[in-house]
Description:
By secondary structure, this protein is α/β, with parallel strands linked by helices. The protein has a single domain (7-316), classed as NAD(P)-binding Rossmann-like Domain (Rossmann fold, 3-Layer(aba) Sandwich), CATH 3.40.50. The protein is built from 10 helices and 13 strands. Helix 8 (251-262) packs across helix 10. The longest helix has 21 residues, at 77-97. It is globular and about 60 Å long. The two termini are 34 Å apart.
Amino acid sequence: MRNTDKILLAGASGLVGSALKRRLDDDGLVNILCPSHAELDMSDNRAVADYFDVHKPVYVFLAAAKVGGILANNTYPADYIYENLMIQNAVIHQSYVHKVKKLLFLGSSCIYPKHCPQPMKEEDLLSGTLEPTNEPYAIAKISGIELCWAYNRQYGTRFIPVMPPNLFGPNDNFDLETSHVLPALLRKFHEARSANRKTVTVWGTGEPRREFLYVDDLADACLFLMNLEDTAVPYMDRPLFNIGTGEDISIRGLAEMIKDITGYQGEIVYDRTKPDGTPQKILNISKISNLGWRAGIPLQQGIRQTYKWFLKHKDYI
Ligand code: GFB
């Protein structure tokens, strides 16, 4: 990408989109389109077509999506499949129609089977049944991958699907009902310390293991992939890239770490009426590692940075 190329950041205000924006700004890219939801409903194919007609983006980062934690996915399955299908259908199709040079589609590690051998390789896609709590979301994301592959094969487009693990960082959702575990625990431990509460409740058994990636590392990987030579990406042969750290931690371990970072002194209790979800999710990252990319921000450091952001913004989010 050249500094003046027109880049559409679909989902620019979210966790991933805002990290991409920070990174593109830092790199001196000056022609970035960041339409707000009020300006452009990404799930409206007609509106997306009109937007592409007027603005003519050359590169597209498709980070717009309906995302949420285990409980939100389980409670609103229709919203998760419908909204994601609509957004990706519109943006991927219009990127083809308007001859976008490259598109990067953000998926999620929940596309892999519930009992996938760990760490999960790109080739494990569709090799087993999905985790029921996020099956509708996962099927939408799998459809997005297939859409990228189908357009590449039929129309010669350069669309790259990428699969990150559980992401976290500035601009995350800290709502206790709909968020992912890491921001939820930061908020719970912080509020318990401030209110001198004796216990903090962590959902499930604490046994599941997850891989967490700081969102600025994801942005770095996305630019790395977008800037790869065409010969490095098998566009005609189902390109797919896992992006991660290659390390996981139990929810119990994460809770202890966040307890320590927030300085909370009380007890942790586990609410076993809440679902655990997939027992383990860790990505095999050898494909992207072999191309020369590595994550740079250790988990503890990323959590400290996120906590700092939360403390600064907690009254407005
Ligand atoms: O992050 P999380 O909601 O999503 O939950 P998933 C991860 C684990 O943390 C689960 C436990 O075992 C939760 O039960 N957990 C403990 C908590 N305390 C809490 C809490 O206070 N809040 C939350 N949210 N969890 C999502 C998928 O799965 O991950 C999506 O539903 C997506 O589709 C996303 O793929 C990355 O990792 O289980």
